[in-house]
């Protein structure tokens, strides 16, 4: 975001104060003094800037010296341009009442703190709008619809950049398809570690339930025999003891499928070993049934 400050040289000290604050805030800015600037150069700077901070004099009813007539015309022209760019101007003056009548929708402030606060808010809005436009372009270029359906398709097809664009545009990580399968579950089932990390960086719900199988992402990772994703979910704080419709926990599923590495990891990470499924079988019972000596010994301890 580029800020353009416009005023008279008599305001140089005030400009200097703002410049120091802008440098602290790391704002990109430029300065125009009406006293020594031509209309053509002002037009160029106005077009190149995203936000305008105007210090008016003539419009505030200040008496003008004869040599200030040209500056008055430039100030009037600039003010008209700023008002045509609704939401991009901030007017700084000690004479708020008279200028409120002149500028209408553009805020008139009389304190430096208030001006900086408004600039911060405007910057957030501008960056948000830019992010939205950038995201729409990425999604449009990929020929995806700008909708939850488009996001689900992007995840299903493993499209990292496009998924990130949807998330940056504000789409929910809890988006699901018509069968009630959330996008995190899709990424887990497809074994897409990168997309799992991306969704989790946007605070995806770790324990969201996929209604088609009544499973959590942790359960899906175990079923997919994906140790890396299982470990990622475990380290992020996923529930290790969720039980599916058969009463089976991720640990019981892992042992039943002879996935010893994942089973050992779940035990080490604190999975409840005492849980029993709908058949009354515990993790130990399954380790014993399938003659998994290492797990049986671990569970005995």
Topology, element by element:
Blueprint lengths: L1 E6 L4 H14 L2 E6 L5 H10 L2 E4 L14 H16 L4 E4 L3 H8 L4 E2 L2 H30 L6 H9 L3 H9 L14 H7 L3 H9 L15 H7 L3 H10 L13 H7 L3 H9 L14 H7 L3 H8 L1
Parallel strand pairs: 1-2, 1-3, 3-4, 4-5
Entry keywords:
301 residues, alpha/beta, Rossmann fold, Serine Threonine Protein Phosphatase 5, Tetratricopeptide repeat, 2 domains, 5 strands, 7% strand
Structural class: alpha/beta
Could you say what the CATH architecture of the largest domain is? Alpha Horseshoe
End-to-end Cα distance, whole Å, is 61 Å
> Main beta sheet: strand number and arrangement?
5 strands, parallel
User: How many DSSP-defined strands?
Assistant: 5
What does the radius of gyration come to? Answer: 31 Å
Helix content: 40-55%
What's the number of structural domains? 2
Give the spatial strand order of the biggest sheet. 2-1-3-4-5
Low-confidence stretches: none
State the order of secondary-structure elements, H for helix, E for strand: EHEHEHEHEHHHHHHHHHHH
CATH class of the largest domain: Mainly Alpha
Mean pLDDT: 90
CATH superfamily of the largest domain: Ankyrin repeat-containing domain
Structural overview:
The chain is elongated and about 100 Å long. Strand 4, helix 4 and strand 5 (108-109) form a beta-alpha-beta unit. 33% of the residues are buried. The chain has 15 helices and 5 strands. The two termini are 61 Å apart. A 5-stranded parallel β-sheet has the order 2-1-3-4-5, with helices on both faces. It is of the alpha/beta class. The longest helix is centred in the middle third of the chain and has 30 residues, at 112-141. 53% of the residues lie in helices and 7% in strands. The model has no long low-confidence stretch (mean pLDDT 90). The protein has 2 domains: 2-110, Flavodoxin domain (Rossmann fold); 147-300, Ankyrin repeat-containing domain (Serine Threonine Protein Phosphatase 5, Tetratricopeptide repeat), CATH 1.25.40.20.
């Amino acid at each position: 975001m580029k800020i353009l400050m416009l005023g008279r040289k008599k305001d140089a000290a005030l400009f200097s104060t703002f410049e120091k604050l802008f440098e602290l805030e790391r704002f990109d800015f430029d300065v125009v003094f009406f006293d020594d600037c031509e209309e053509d150069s002002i037009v160029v700077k106005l077009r190149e800037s995203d936000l305008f901070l105007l210090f008016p004099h003539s419009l505030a009813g200040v008496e003008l010296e004869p040599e200030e007539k040209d500056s008055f015309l430039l100030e009037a022209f600039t003010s008209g341009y700023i008002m045509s760019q609704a939401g991009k101007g901030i007017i700084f003056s000690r004479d708020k009442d008279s200028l409120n009548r002149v500028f209408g929708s553009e805020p008139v402030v009389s304190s430096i703190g208030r001006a900086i606060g408004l600039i911060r808010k405007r910057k957030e809005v501008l960056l948000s709008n830019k992010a939205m436009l950038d995201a729409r372009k990425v999604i449009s270029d990929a020929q995806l619809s700008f909708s939850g359906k488009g996001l689900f398709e992007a995840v299903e097809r493993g499209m990292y950049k496009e998924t990130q664009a949807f998330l940056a545009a504000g789409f929910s990580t809890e988006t699901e398809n018509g069968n009630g399968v959330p996008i995190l579950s899709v990424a887990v089932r497809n074994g897409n570690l990168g997309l799992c990390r991306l969704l989790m960086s946007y605070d995806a719900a770790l324990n969201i339930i996929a209604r088609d199988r009544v499973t959590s992402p942790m359960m899906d990772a175990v079923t997919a025999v994906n140790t890396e994703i299982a470990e990622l979910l475990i380290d992020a704080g996923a529930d290790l003891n969720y039980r599916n419709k058969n009463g089976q926990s991720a640990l019981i599923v892992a042992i039943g499928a002879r996935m010893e590495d994942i089973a050992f990891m779940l035990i080490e990470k604190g999975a409840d070993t005492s849980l029993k499924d709908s058949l009354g079988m515990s993790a130990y019972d399954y380790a014993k049934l399938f003659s998994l000596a290492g797990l049986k010994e671990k569970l005995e301890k």
